[in-house]
Amino acid sequence: MRKKQIALMVAAIVAASSLSTVSAATWQAGDWELGLGGNVNTFYTVTQCDSGDLGANGGTMAGLACADLDTGTVADGNTHSVSNGLLPASLNFSAKTKQNGYDLSGNVNVYYGMASQDTNGLAGDALDFSTVDARQVYLTFGNDKMGTVKAGRDFGLFGFDPIINDMSLIGNGATFASAGPGHTTLGGLGYGYVYTDRLAQINWTAPKKGGVEATVGVFNPLDGVESNGSSTRDGGQPGIHGKVSYDWDKGNGVKGRVSASALSQKVQLANGDKPSINGADIFAKVDINNTSLAGSYYQGKGMDTLGLGGIIFPGFDSTTGEAEKSKGYMAQASYKMGNTKLGLNLSQSKQTNLTKVKNDKVTVGVYHNLTDSLTLIGEASSQKSNLDGVGTDKTGSVAVGAMLSF
């Protein structure tokens, strides 16, 4: 039962691992420029689930690759699935115009799952339906002098650059619940970075100067999880997120980006304590002609290795109020040869205080642009989680598929 509860909580988080695409088609409607774009992706994935390699009984990040959501158990033997990768399919609508000296825009992005799911969000049977969800709905307004205000539901700032630059964004990375696939895979979530999530927010981005850009905002706070399994309560303040970045392009095939982001929000525990969930990360990427190098590092307090508040393992001790501590890194290298890109991604995350666990992932990938819009993809990943005092879970997967962006 506990494995099923854990798996369902993770499903609720990773079901949102989708990022907007640039609209490919635009047209004029009076003073408005309307845009429509999206993607369709599908992968055939084989995941190795050998009970002899699940020394922690599947109750870890690596073990969740083999979770069977229908039975609440762990699969034994290879599982086969046809489903989405890290991104769901999407249909993204935008509208923008300029009025009274202000640039205005509205965005509504809807995401679709490939695999059928039943009414409880579990793997579906015959005649069941896939999921549909409007995950990004926001407006923006501003100009070159005042910067830009964003209001609505969109991705957070903390952890955004690592996931948007992960080569598995258009692929699979680490699988999740392969015996009955859900909306998405994990990619590198829980291994090298935490999930940025989609949050109701109001933020302001200052005008970009000399390649430097800064954003700060208030975000609807999220519940954490205590060690007794109960959710924390609202701590009486919004979440505060901030980010600063610097982009450069030397014009000779060398360009790059560095960024740093942070978040803080209070939660209230059952014992009356009001601790804070805090996190900070740093990201860097350099492109040198056909070679791309990227890396990130984060530290968190009151959060686990996947996201805020302790989705897999608790963020706070229910008795003492002591916070979990987590940290992780991602290192990635890729090389383009004509229309084909080869990539290697190494990532690791740790929890070091309440529940000591280390998650490691290695992914190798081949991404071939058959056309400007269609990419054929092959990835192989290996995951390992060591849960202190319990054991080690090991899993791996091979995935082949295609991504069509329009």
From TrEMBL:
Which range is the signal sequence, renumbered to this chain?
Answer: 1-24
Keywords assigned:
Signal
Question: Which Pfam families does this one have?
Answer: Porin_4
Which is an annotated GO molecular function term of this record? porin activity
Q: Name one GO cellular component term.
A: membrane
InterPro entries linked to this entry: Gram_neg_porin_domain, Porin_dom_sf
Q: Where is the Porin domain?
A: 12-384
Query: Which protein is depicted?
Result: Porin domain-containing protein
